[in-house]
Design brief:
It is globular, with a radius of gyration of 21 Å. The two termini are about 25 Å apart. The strands form 2 sheets. Strands 1, 2, 3, 4, 5, 14, 15 and 16 form an 8-stranded mixed sheet that branches. The chain has an 8-stranded parallel sheet with strand order 6-7-8-9-10-11-12-13. With about 425 residues, it is an alpha/beta fold. It contains 17 helices and 16 strands.
Length: about 425
């Protein structure tokens, strides 16, 4: 049989195979490792995998890579980022180090609003170039698929500009779009938040739905999400429900930021409306963890936020896993609370502060992260028929990804069957 690419002698071929489902509970520890493994690729797809001694004689390949005992694993999937933005928040970083809280800065018109002003003023090309540079760094660190939210425009034209930048990034990277006009109440509506809610419901949602219908995302059947920051000084539970239910009328798939600082009941809302994921979950009570574990809504955990903000409290990810929730990890890359490009760093923090085993952290950053963005049928694991997104790591044991701190173990990135 013919293959375009054959990789042989992977000391550990880490498949994260899931047979079409996310991993829960004990299955989150199963990485489907094939010792001395091999993988065959034709075009963008995986056409065979197994032990090298079994697979190698079956294929005549145009290119053969000898992994020389190194780990081969799926490319990382980052299911929650705010990657397109203008400016920086270095001054606010110093304020936080001096004792100001995230919500203090937000209430004073900083935080998200500071970045919103910079993003509104930034030309399309400037936003595109800075986003491309960030994605290049993420790819170098092993991330091959990235969800990107709008939400630093908070007005129709600026939000559409961000979505157009996200689409333009598809020329070189695999990105998944999310509309997050409900990221904060913009300054001009601070005294009349219901006015901004009406703008979202009556103008922004139909216009962004129309944008998606004409986009290459729709043509290629890439899902389109809507996200809401359900939090004090942002959107309450009733407002969040209105936005998400209206967005579902337009065919958009729901996500929520919930329980980052205050518990407002967002998990129950997410489960009720069938959200793909609920994200953050730092103060989620045990009753909601139990309910989440009984649902098909993914729990996306972003421990870099807690670390960067200097918090000592982290999401109870151990309980979520033990209860049976679908747990995924993400960077939450953004200029304010998580200036982080590295999924291995996320895994390392989640293991140390969330008591995740290395196997759990890796599955949560691949197949479960792909589920959190509705892409688990196409990527997130190494299985026949799936997209050939994989990494060759400079180690013979996958646990080094989580154990070693401050080193990039990625020696080669292969995206859709091609070396990057």
């Amino acid at each position: 049989m013919h293959a375009d690419l054959l990789i042989v002698h992977a000391g550990q071929l880490v498949t994260c195979a899931s047979q079409g489902a996310p991993k829960r509970g004990q299955s989150l520890r199963d990485l489907g490792i094939i010792p001395d493994g091999a993988i065959a690729i034709q075009g963008e797809r995986i056409i065979g995998l197994g032990p090298t001694e079994t697979l190698e004689p079956l294929y005549h390949a145009d290119q053969v890579i000898d992994a020389e005992g190194c780990v081969v694993c799926p490319g990382f999937v980052d299911p929650h980022t705010h990657l397109v933005y203008g400016g920086d928040r270095l001054d606010e970083f110093e304020l936080k180090l001096s004792g100001a809280s995230y919500l203090d800065i937000l209430a004073a018109g900083g935080g998200i609003m500071h970045t919103t002003h910079a993003t509104r003023e930034s030309p399309f090309e400037s936003l595109l170039h800075s986003a491309q540079a960030r994605l290049k760094t993420m790819q170098r660190l092993g991330t091959t698929t990235v969800e990107i939210k709008s939400g630093y425009g908070l007005e129709l034209d600026a939000e559409l500009k961000i979505l157009q930048v996200i689409e333009a990034l598809r020329d070189d990277y695999e990105v998944i779009p999310t509309f997050m006009g409900a990221h904060a109440i913009p300054s001009e509506y601070r005294e009349q938040p219901e006015g901004y809610l009406r703008l979202l419901l009556d103008e922004m949602l139909p216009m962004v739905a129309n944008w998606y219908d004409g986009s290459s995302f729709k043509r290629d059947q890439i899902p389109f999400f809507v996200d809401v920051f359900c939090e004090q000084h942002a959107f309450d539970l009733n407002q969040s429900r209105q936005i998400l239910e209206r967005s579902q009328d337009y065919g958009m798939i729901a996500k929520l930021h919930v329980d980052e600082f205050h518990h407002l009941g967002g998990v129950s809302l997410a489960i009720e409306i069938g959200a793909q994921s609920v994200d953050h979950l730092d103060v989620t009570p045990p009753s909601d963890i139990h309910a989440l574990a009984q649902s098909n809504t993914a729990a996306v955990i972003m421990p870099v936020v807690n670390l960067h903000l200097g918090n000592t409290h982290f999401a109870n990810v151990r309980e979520m896993i033990d209860q049976g929730a679908i747990v995924a990890l993400a960077t939450d890359l953004n200029p304010g609370s998580a200036p982080c490009f590295s999924m291995p760093l996320v895994m390392a923090i989640a293991s140390r502060y969330g008591r995740m085993l290395p196997s759990e952290a890796l599955n949560a950053s691949t197949i479960n992260a792909a589920y959190a963005i509705g892409m688990h049928d196409r990527l997130g694991s190494l299985e026949v028929g799936k997209q050939a997104d994989l990494l060759i790591l400079k180690t013979n044991d996958y646990r080094d990804l989580i154990y070693l701190l401050g080193e990039n173990l990625v020696s080669q990135v292969i995206k859709k069957g091609k070396s990057c």
